[in-house]
Amino acid sequence: MRPFYRLLPIASLFTFAAISPAQGQLFKKRHAAPVPSPPPMQQVALYQSSNPYINPGPSLLAEPLPETVVYRQPLYTPPSYSLPFEGYRYRRSEDNSRVSFFGPSKPSDEMLELLSVIRARAEHISKFHLPYVFGGDHPSDGGLDCSGVLKFMLGDIGFSDMPRTSYHQYDWLRKARTLRHSKSIPEQMGGRKGIKPGDLIFWGGTYDSGHKVSHVMIYLGQGGDGTHYMFGARGKKMQGLNGSGVDIFKLESGYQKSLIGFGSLPGVS
Questions:
Q1: Is residue 268 part of a domain?
Q2: Which of 68, 80, 166, 225 has its CA 20 to 30 Å from the CA of residue 187?
Q3: Which residues contact 114 (CB under 8 A, 6 or more apart)?
Q4: At what angle do helices 109-126 and 146-154 cross, to 10 degrees?
């Protein structure tokens, strides 16, 4: 007779064979729930036509929203190039003699009016913040050079015969006998020995111009502290009181190696 433990596996087979059909369902593989098929195309279109967010009705239509600007690059608007006292004309004297330079120390009323026009125009141009540009004779060129800015400022207020270049402007004063050759800027303003507002100042050797004169500025006057001021265009690395190359600058008195001289505008007295 076989031992009891040898008969146990055979008995186990009969035990599992006796499972009921209902119990057997528990051991079957379960399938996922069926996915419903998508609606027909005409049904999808029907849903879209009834969706107020896709096809809003008249009651859902609103006024268009105003334009929203997150950032817009500001448009550059150049300054107005019209100068103060556009209709002003200085009545120049026909006698271009040295009397105009060595005349009375007190300027005439007409001369004081001219100086106020020159100073107003110089201050106005200096606020354009223009750089020094060689060959520029109008702000629309993007900048001005030394003789070009003086021609632009003085050309239409009685000095239409003013030459264009610094050398010819120097020759213009020399022929009118209003030029005073000097290597020094006087400390005082006015009088026979001083420098007067409205005088042109000439230097040489600022660049290889091929001429004796290469630079010109106009003298504006003296401040309460004795500081001299001049207006014009200087080199690209020079900045005036307003931080520009075409600006108002301080004028140092005393000896200047490259200074040639200064003098009054022809016909001014």
A1: no
A2: 166
A3: 90, 157, 158, 198, 268
A4: 130
First to last CA, the chain: 156
* Residue 249: inside a domain: yes
Q: How do beta strands 259-263 and 143-144 pair?
A: unpaired
Residue with tokens 């019209």: 82
| pLDDT, tens digit, 9 for 90 and up, residues 24-58 | 655 555 666 666 666 555 555 555 555 555 555 55
CA distance 55 to 226: 81
Q: In what order do the strands lie in the sheet with 200-203?
A: 179-181, 259-263, 200-203, 215-222, 228-233, 246-251
Beta carbons of 232 and 153 less than 8 angstroms apart: no
Chain centroid offset of residue 238 CA: 17
* Residue 14 within a domain: no
CATH for 174: 3.90.1720.10
268, 198 Cβ separation under 8 angstroms: yes
91 inside domain = no
Residue 157 pLDDT class (50, 70, 90 cuts): very high
How many structural domains does the chain have? 1
* pLDDT digits 0-9 by tens, 178-235: 999 999 999 999 888 899 999 999 999 888 878 899 999 999 999 989 999 999 999 8
Provide the 3-class DSSP secondary structure of residue 72: coil
* Total-model pTM: 0.70
Please give the share of the chain, as a percent, with pLDDT higher than 70.
68
What tokens does 160 get? 């239409």
Burial class of residue 124, CB neighbours in 10 A (0-12, 13-18, 19+): middle
Phi, psi of 172 (to 5 degrees): -60, -45
Tell me the residue range of the domain where 144 lies: 106-263
